[in-house]
Design brief:
With 445 residues, the protein is α/β, with parallel strands linked by helices. The protein has two domains: 182 residues, NAD(P)-binding Rossmann-like Domain (Rossmann fold, 3-Layer(aba) Sandwich); 236 residues, Dihydrodipicolinate Reductase, domain 2 (2-Layer Sandwich). 33% of the residues lie in helices and 19% in strands. The strands form two sheets. A nine-stranded mixed beta sheet has the order 14-13-12-11-7-10-9-8-15. Strands 3-2-1-4-5-6 form a six-stranded parallel beta sheet, sandwiched between helices. α7 packs antiparallel against α14 and α10 packs across α14. The N terminus is likely disordered. The chain binds nicotinamide-adenine-dinucleotide. Nicotinamide-adenine-dinucleotide binds next to loops.
Length: 445
């Protein structure tokens, strides 16, 4: 691992304390909250230099977050679209390559953030690991378990960290819920309910996003969020899945919603419901706040539906629109982008039931409904879920130790649940899981 001898003044910044400030307020701090030292006893020497693979829609949101993170530098990118490369270089004054292979060969990056479409995650993550780069892959980490194994093996062989990124498990509210459950404050965990209604299916999509064989549809694209929420709160070890995934529109022949029942090895159960059909919006029940932590009006779904109706029978028109909202497109910023003032992120509504009380997310933090009293626990809003994940990666990298959370095996276990939802729905039966791993990293007070 590359290290510089010189210690910079900013290097003593208490990164963990900043990202996990809500823990300090609430109860003690996470287990890895001790100051990060390298082998010479110093804090990290310099920011981690990221190359971004894929400058599409989500890069509009991710790039400003990387730019604003104190221990991250945007050092390069790759995309097959020339207009994206041109725009990226104009914004960040660093090179943009036409292939991920060339990006991974650059000596000027330490890590690659994989934001290419789902079918490319495994190839691009493996390529990065083989060039000795740390790797963060957006959800889902891959589309098959065999691909996960290839990625994990490449990371282990080359001594780099592979992180399953972009997960609401890192949001302050979900981490706090998991901590309360793990400490047993309200007794044993019984049930987790998570319910989310969006317009995912009717947003402008590329053809592969509407093809389950290429990792399209809401089970691959959205379920990982809900699965990470319930696995984080429920202890990680899902025993079995029973599910029904729905296809509600022949013009968009892919899963647009699902209901899944998960049994955990510890006896707890979780129910996950997702609808991406652009009718009722669960932000009506979450203080008008969406998964970006941004305000969202009820008219959004009607607008999405209206726009989608103009694409019926014309996939090229739809692809042209989607292209226009990506980095370098004429509508760049219409979808995602800077989030200067934001609230807590709501991936729908999550309710946790334990023996002696319930938990629910609120605008300010979470409500605890106990046997004899109810109280609200305020939690600090953070930049984004990615801020905490970048902190984790940075600290592991700079201290030369393994990731404390959300490594490739965690991502594989989450993907296993996605695949089980599809399998259970297809075969009308319970699917027993074999590749789960426990969630162990929430703080204990
Ligand atoms: N859209 C979102 O809100 C969102 C949010 C979180 C995570 N994600 C995840 O991020 C990934 C990308 O989603 P998106 O919506 O930004 O997709 P997108 O189609 O808008 O962007 C993908 C980008 O990758 C580029 N690309 C495609 N093939 C490439 C290749 N072989 N080499 C280099 N570049 C290539 C495309 O030109 C495009 O710029 C997906 O895995 C998705 O699950 C998306």
């Amino acid at each position: 691992m590359r290290r510089e001898a010189k210690r910079h003044p900013w290097a003593a910044a208490p990164v963990v304390a900043r990202a996990f400030a809500h823990y300090t307020e609430a109860a003690g701090g996470p287990p890895w909250a001790a100051p990060v030292r390298n082998s010479e006893g110093y804090m990290a020497q310099r920011p981690i230099r990221f190359g971004i693979a894929g400058l599409g829609t989500v890069s509009n949101t991710v790039l400003p977050e990387l730019r604003d993170h104190p221990n991250v530098t945007i050092a390069a990118a790759a995309d097959v679209r020339p207009e994206a490369r041109e725009r990226f270089t104009a914004l960040y004054s660093v090179p943009a390559y036409a292939s991920v292979e060339d990006l991974c060969a650059s000596p000027d990056i330490d890590a690659v953030y994989v934001l290419t479409p789902n079918p490319f995650h495994a190839t691009h993550a493996t390529m990065a690991a083989e060039r000795g780069k740390q790797v963060v892959v957006t959800k889902p980490i891959a589309t098959t378990l065999a691909d996960c194994d290839t990625m994990i093996a490449a990371a282990e062989r080359h001594g780099v960290r592979l992180m399953a990124g972009t997960t609401p498990a890192f949001t302050p509210v979900i981490m706090e819920m998991a901590a309360i459950v793990q400490r047993g404050d309200l007794g044993r965990l019984l049930l987790v309910n998570t319910w989310w209604q969006t317009d995912w299916l009717y947003l402008p999509r590329m053809p592969e996003e509407l093809d389950v064989n290429q990792g399209g549809g809401v089970v691959f694209r959205q379920a990982p969020h809900q699965i990470d929420i319930v696995r984080t709160i429920g202890g990680g070890m899902v025993r079995s899945v029973r599910a029904r995934a729905s296809r509600g529109d022949p013009d968009r022949p892919v899963e647009g919603g699902f209901m899944a029942f998960l049994e955990f090895e510890n006896g707890a159960a979780a129910a996950m419901t997702y609808s991406g059909y652009a009718h009722l919006d669960t932000t009506e029940f979450t203080y008008g706040t969406d998964a970006q932590g941004m305000p969202r009006g009820p008219e959004k779904h009607l607008n999405t539906r209206r726009r989608a109706s103009s694409f019926v029978g014309d996939r090229n028109k739809e692809a042209t629109y989607k292209n226009s909202v990506r980095l370098g497109g004429i509508r760049e910023g219409e979808w995602g982008g800077e989030r200067p003032t934001k609230g807590h992120e709501f991936y729908g509504l999550t309710i946790v039931s334990c023996e002696r009380g319930d938990l629910r997310q609120t605008a300010n933090g979470l409500m605890i409904y106990g046997d004899e009293a109810w109280r609200e626990v305020p939690l600090a809003v953070r930049g984004s879920e990615r801020e905490a994940e970048l902190d984790c990666l940075y600290e592991a990298w700079s201290a030369d130790r393994p990731l404390p959370a959300h490594d490739g095996r965690w991502g594989k276990a989450t993907l296993e649940v996605c695949l089980a939802i599809l399998e259970s729905s297809r075969e009308h039966r319970d699917v027993v899981l074999r590749h789960q791993m426990p969630h162990t990293w929430t703080h204990q007070s």
